[in-house]
Amino acid sequence: MKYFKNIVNVMLLTISGMLFSQVKPLDAELTNYQYPFEVQFLNFKSQNNDLKMAYMDVKPEKPNGKAIMLLHGKNFNGAYWERTARDLSAKGFRVIIPDQIGFGKSSKPQHYQFSFSQLAENTKAILDKLNIDKTIVLGHSMGGMVATRFTLLYPEKVEKLILENPIGLEDYKTFAAYQTIDQAYQSELKNTAESYKNYQLKFYYDNKWKSEYQPWLDLIAGWTLHPDYPKVAWDAALTSDMIYNQPVCYEFKNIKVPTLLIIGTRDRTAIGKDRAPKELQPKMGQYQLLGKKTQQEIKGSQLIEIENVGHLPHIEVYDKFWNALYDFIK
């Protein structure tokens, strides 16, 4: 029996190694990775940096006169919105999908003060360039924090707000110890394809891996194999610091636009959980509670809970996510 177990373990390790060996090195701005739609760039100067911000502008064949902006999470970029964007476009929506500065195909500045207000202003600049006066805003994960700040700063620009498993529903400083940016950077440098996959299995997919999840792992894992990775890791450390130090949860009560929360209740994502005392860790990232709490704080908001779903409803259970989204915006 022990012999057969060893054989099985060897086979699993071999398969795992084959999967990771297929990951291709990706440079800091993903120049060798093709996005699902044409990529355009906003060139601008910010904090004494010459920057370019990538975005996709998906125009429908039969416009319904409405625009929707899709904001990605921290471990992602605009590409993972492909299916959502195609379905929205088919329904007549103009779909704008930015890559935030520090992410995806956008610039990776090494001397930049990341703030949600700055990211919101950068995002508004894309809408201004495209002459879009009002849009629906959908933010996932960290994109939910960007979307919240954008809505608070520019409410006149927002028709409706959708938050899909946003982080920042709680103040991580009240649980987790502070880490310096230098410490965060050293931690980011240790990331590998395997460590990223283990994280996603634990927090996103309940230890059940499917082939359709692989592209979103490959995009961040590919960075770790390229000489540019220190630049990516530095910006990742800066944005982790931004998330920890700039909570939005105290301002949900100030949101006045129609809002929908789409919450996968199995999600336990929480920034800095590994730095929190053992007795507090189980209390962090309780999305089945945080969704309800946030819905009560945003006056008139709606909550759609998707049971037994993790951090990525639009990847894990797309149809349920789409039905919730389209019912709210149609």
Can you describe this structure?
Residues 1-21 form the signal peptide. One of its GO terms (cellular component) is membrane. With 330 residues, the protein is α/β, with parallel strands linked by helices. It has a single domain (25-329), classed as Alpha/Beta hydrolase fold, catalytic domain (Rossmann fold, 3-Layer(aba) Sandwich). Helix content is 39%, strand content 16%. The chain has 11 helices and 8 strands. It has helices at residues 2-21, 82-90, 116-129, 142-153, 181-189, 193-203, 214-224, 229-245, 287-297, 313-316, 318-329, and strands spanning 39-46, 49-58, 67-71, 94-98, 135-140, 158-164, 259-264, 302-306. The chain has an 8-stranded mixed beta sheet with strand order 1-2-4-3-5-6-7-8, with helices on both faces. Helix 9 links the parallel strand 7 and strand 8. Helix 3 crosses helix 4 (142-153) and helix 6 (193-203) runs antiparallel to helix 7. The longest helix has 20 residues, at 2-21. The chain is globular, with a radius of gyration of 20 Å. The N and C termini lie far apart (58 Å). Residues 1-21 have low confidence and may be disordered.
Write the layout of secondary structure elements.
Blueprint: H1 2-21, E1 39-46, E2 49-58, E3 67-71, H2 82-90, E4 94-98, H3 116-129, E5 135-140, H4 142-153, E6 158-164, H5 181-189, H6 193-203, H7 214-224, H8 229-245, E7 259-264, H9 287-297, E8 302-306, H10 313-316, H11 318-329
Parallel strand pairs: 3-4, 3-5, 5-6, 6-7, 7-8
Antiparallel strand pairs: 1-2, 2-4
Helix pairs in contact: 3-4, 5-8, 6-7
